[in-house]
Specification:
Structural class: alpha+beta
Order of helices and strands: EHEHEEEEHEHEEEEEEEEEEHEEH
Distance between the termini: 54 Å
CATH superfamily: Ribonuclease Z/Hydroxyacylglutathione hydrolase-like
Strand order of the largest sheet: 3-4-5-6-7-8-9
CATH architecture: 4-Layer Sandwich
Helix content: 10-25%
């Protein structure tokens, strides 16, 4: 029995003798099946050609990304706190050197993931570190490999150790989540947003989409909901889902401006 991995989105599926008939995550209109059709691989196969890059981003924050890029190409974040370490978002690739490097940083005490496109090999990561996975219950149906390590939480927010907070912002998915790290940005606060609040190319502003590959926008009401969800939290920096998607300062102002600009455009008053 094998846990097959979708080569397009990087999601690992439950054990089966043959590859699944299709990837429900890629068949959803927010993602896509490539022109060559559904393709499958395995973690063991990936270990022949890939490795992870691990590098510090600021004090107590480390990025973990796969080289060469695989599937969606996101990188994960390890947040270190005196009470424990959080792995934010997840990547498909995992090997023994990665496990050893992360254990040298204190290991992983919990995993939280922004939305189903980044569920990837979350169960492999959870088992490697003995860590629970926290997912919003609204996205339960997108879990392709059920496991006892997964805990579904409900409501608008969930406090974690080290003053970390998970915030259900919605938008991209019903249970789309961002994380607030108050110690980030030298105590000014940081949001870890995946692409729920997506940092754009000039890295001062953000955007908000229902589907990025298919360029389907969100309704203005959904954008307002996202901004309102993070409004109570102090932050000056945003870490998006990729190495270069970071707003280093004045992120709160950037989100407010971006939401107003987006709403003007989507409502035809641009």
């Amino acid at each position: 029995m094998t846990c097959f991995v979708c080569a397009t989105c990087g999601t690992q599926f439950a054990e089966s003798e043959a590859p699944p008939a299709g990837c429900a995550i890629c068949e959803d209109e927010r993602q896509y099946v490539g022109q060559a059709g559904q393709r499958w691989t395995t973690l063991a196969s990936l270990q022949e050609d890939y490795h992870n890059v691990i590098k510090p981003l600021e004090r107590n924050l480390t990025g973990i990304g796969t080289h060469p890029a695989f599937a969606i190409g996101q990188r994960a974040l390890l947040v270190q706190t005196p009470e424990g370490n959080l792995l934010w978002d997840c990547i498909t690739y995992l090997d023994e050197p990665t496990i050893a490097a992360i254990k040298a940083l204190g290991g992983v005490d919990a995993i939280a993931i922004s939305h189903p496109h980044f569920y990837s090999c979350m169960v492999e990561w959870a088992r490697a570190f003995g860590a629970p996975i926290y997912l919003h219950a609204a996205d339960r149906r997108w879990v392709m490999r059920p496991d006892s390590s997964i805990t579904f939480w409900e409501g608008d927010s969930k406090p974690l150790f080290g003053d970390l907070t998970l915030i259900c912002a919605g938008g991209h998915f019903e249970g789309a989540t961002v994380a607030h790290w108050p110690a980030g940005a030298k105590g000014r606060g940081a949001l870890l947003t995946g692409d729920i609040i997506h940092v754009v190319a000039d890295r001062r502003y953000t955007t908000f989409m229902y589907s990025y590959p298919n360029m389907i926008p969100l309704a203005a009401s959904a954008v307002r909901q996202i901004v309102e969800a993070v409004e109570p939290f102090a932050y000056d920096r945003i870490y998006g889902a990729w190495w270069d998607k970071v707003i280093g300062e004045k992120a709160r102002e950037g989100v407010a401006f971006s939401a107003e600009r987006y709403i003007r455009a989507i409502e035809g008053d641009g």
